[in-house]
Amino acid sequence: METPIRASHTIFESPLGELTLVAHDGVLAGVYFPAHTRLPDPGTFGARVPTGFDAATEQLAEYFRGERTTFDLPLAPCGSAFQLSVWNLLRQIPYGETRSYGQLARELGNVSLAREVGGANARNPLSVIVPCHRVVGAKGQLVGYAGGLERKRFLLDLEARITGSQLLIGGIV
To answer: Is pLDDT above 80 for 167?
Structure first.
């Protein structure tokens, strides 16, 4: 018999509004915006706790201040093997750059998986930390973001401003 997961959560005030951080057995499993598309049942988030999220909140604060370009946190996202492979690819997109769904599908070995990559991207439970905001449409257009396109634009603009470059599409201007 499996031991049930102990879930807990906290609220982090960000420039984009309150972020709900969820941990499973003390490991970060979710970062959700207010009115997050595909938000899991908040009843599964466990008790709200004042401690246990120090590293995550510190790194998020550094990111929003433009002092951090990568996250170094243990993560416990729940998803299928395919979703986990897509989320791993998202973590490899360099700060200040973007990739298209098709480019990610090609990296997975099958360009025809672009739609499935989009579905996995849309279900990323670790917004900001696993940078699904860095994925754009085939022609560089902003499409779909669980936190809303205004938040996606904010995050991309923040990264472009910090790197001092134009928004990069697919690694090139």
So the answer is: no
